[in-house]
Amino acid sequence: METGTSAVKRKLVLEGLDCANCAMKIENGVQKIDGVSACSVNFANKTLTMELVSDRSDDILEQTKKKIRTLEPGIKVLEYGTAGSPRGGSFKHSHAHSHDHGAEAEDDGHGHSHDHGAQSIKIMVARLTTGLAIGVLAFALPLSWELELILFIASYLIVGGDIVFKALKNIVRGQVFDEYFLMSIATVGAFVIGEYPEGVAVMLFYQVGELFQSIAVNRSRKSISALMDIRPDFANLKTGNEIKRVSPEEVRIGDLIVVRPGEKVPLDGKIIEGNSAMDTSALTGESVPRQVAAGDNVLSGFINKNGALTIEVSKVFGESTVAKILDLVENASSKKAPTENFITKFARYYTPFVVIVAALLAVVPPLLFSGATFSDWVYRALVFLVISCPCALVVSIPLGFFGGIGASSKNGILVKGSNYLEALNDVKYVVFDKTGTLTKGEFKVNGIYPQNGWTEQALLRQAAFAEMHSTHPIAESIREAYGQELNEELLSGYNEISGHGIQVVLEGKEVLAGNAKLMKRENVDFAAPSELGTIVHIAIDKQYAGYLVIADEVKEDSARAIRSLKKLGVKKIVMLTGDIKTVGEAVGKKLGVDEVHSELLPQHKVEELEKIDRQKSSKEKIAFVGDGINDTPVLARADVGVAMGGLGSDAAIEAADIVIMTDEPSKLASAIHIAKRTRRIVWQNILFALLVKAVFLLLGAFGIATMWEAVFSDVGVTLLAVLNAMRVLKIKPNLA
């Protein structure tokens, strides 16, 4: 969400958040606080992200904590980064803001939360076993009515006392409609109409289901966390001859660190000595190790396979690749997909509606029909209530999307929000930038064609001097081909003419180097060459001297990428390039793209995108894929902006919605494949849950389904939906 200058982002960790309904309640509650412009609770990693007015941020933060304490007293609110993250859910924090909390706070966060989870499961199992034993005694032994009732009540309180207590607390705070209320009303109601065993059994079954659900949710949280767990735990800082293990946050730019075999590279930097193979799969999804040696740059998150390396650090931890990626992934869930928002709205109206229907079901038939017993219809109403709980949807949908984001990151694709993951499903137009995206962007001088008495070497020398200060890849390739030292003192009057080329004075002569437009503009006579590639024309003192042909290679992966996209249902693939028409057309033909637009400047690319936008239907979406450096405006304008090889360009990571960590265009097809599978699994869950609910609501209203089936339909559906959502993590894109 774009915000003005006065908005600041804050993040809180919600320790002990294990019901999705509570997450929704907190999100709605905090949203209403004055000064909060946006708020999103991520159930899957127990964090709350909010945007608030900066000049009152501390005050608003206090109000937020108070609000959460009121809504959910069991939740412990931690400022993001002050304590270690909960191991069972949230990722290891990408930026522990302050060091003064020291190791103790870090340690406390890790150990406590993990232990707490296992401990609470043990306590719960003990409670359920005791409650069940007492219930079985009451049911099996021939006791007097009073004693039987006392034993059943004791059993009920041991099993579900906390649920009733939570429901009462919520009612006092004016929050009536939640699952605790539904369960309490249904089971207490069963006691009132004399169905003691059923009251106890239903509560027991519900608690067992909740137990399994929280184990399943924690499992899936852990598997997602494991995918994202690229955060390095330490750095070996080298000072003099001494090596000291420190936290990555303490290392400064220019420091030397040692990375031993098997360790993660903790910070971005340049190798000073040593050579090794790097496992880059955590960042790029590539399985083949990358060979590195002294002089190469390495990124944090790579794993050193075999040699010891000394690295000079080039970025502090907060700016390093790992920190950026963790930050992107952790913030991904604050941008929710339309399907997730639909569920939030759905639950808001659905629960009160169900409670009203249940109340009518209990009261109306006994008044209207003779012979209808009050207790019978109250029982049906209670069954109706239990079935209506929307848990399955509320839990499994965010988990499904979160798993999709996890599966993408495992494949080297960073998706910045579940809304973008969902948007990929509707991408029908894909626009590629050519250079560096479909082609390697590595230019080589393929031919030197001197005219008017110049020699090849002399022509190349003039061109190399003219391109001396340009950072363009073409200029670099010319300097590389010349391969000799360039003396700056021989140059004067350097003038870059945008979109045309360069004008300089070399040893007293005016040199022009650029495209055909430059020659025409300066009235230089020349014959158009027939060679394919980028042509650089050279004129000396307005006299044509010849031309160089520079060509760029197509990536091995590009043709496959375009085939896969077509297979996935993309209607039209367009290629945009600043290159001349002949080159653009030749590459387009080779790859099988539908349309090619050549000789475009960056602003023209946005115009081309807008033309497509006007042709398509409102539901269809356009994805733009670029290598980032000069594509920022187009990335921002497209429905889904995809930055390629995003490890290189910070601007691209900022502007894009999806960042492909490698240089392979086919990863876009993988991302669409994962998005389609994720949507399919999410909709399976929605339809399955609603269908089962509908069937059981009808059976309950007609008195066919008892409380047992009611609870099974609620808890069972939730469990199946969570397990189904976990399948998302297993998606492996298999593309042609």
From TrEMBL:
Residues 8-76 form the HMA domain. It is found in: Cell membrane. InterPro entries: ATPase_P-typ_cyto_dom_N, ATPase_P-typ_P_site, ATPase_P-typ_TM_dom_sf, ATPase_P-typ_transduc_dom_A_sf, ATPase_P-type_domA, Cation_Transport_ATPase_IB, HAD-like_sf, HAD_sf. Residues 86-116 are annotated as: Disordered. It comes from the Bacteria. Its main location: membrane. Keywords: ATP-binding, Cadmium, Cell membrane, Ion transport, Magnesium, Membrane, Metal-binding, Nucleotide-binding, Phosphoprotein, Translocase, Transmembrane, Transmembrane helix, Transport, Zinc. The keyword Lipoprotein does not apply. The chain crosses the membrane at residues 124-143, 149-165, 349-369, 381-402, 686-705. It is a multi-pass membrane protein. It catalyses: Zn(2+)(in) + ATP + H2O = Zn(2+)(out) + ADP + phosphate + H(+); Cd(2+)(in) + ATP + H2O = Cd(2+)(out) + ADP + phosphate + H(+). Residues 97-116 have a biased composition (Basic and acidic residues). Belongs to the cation transport ATPase (P-type) (TC 3.A.3) family. Type IB subfamily. This is Heavy metal translocating P-type ATPase. It comes from Paenibacillus woosongensis.
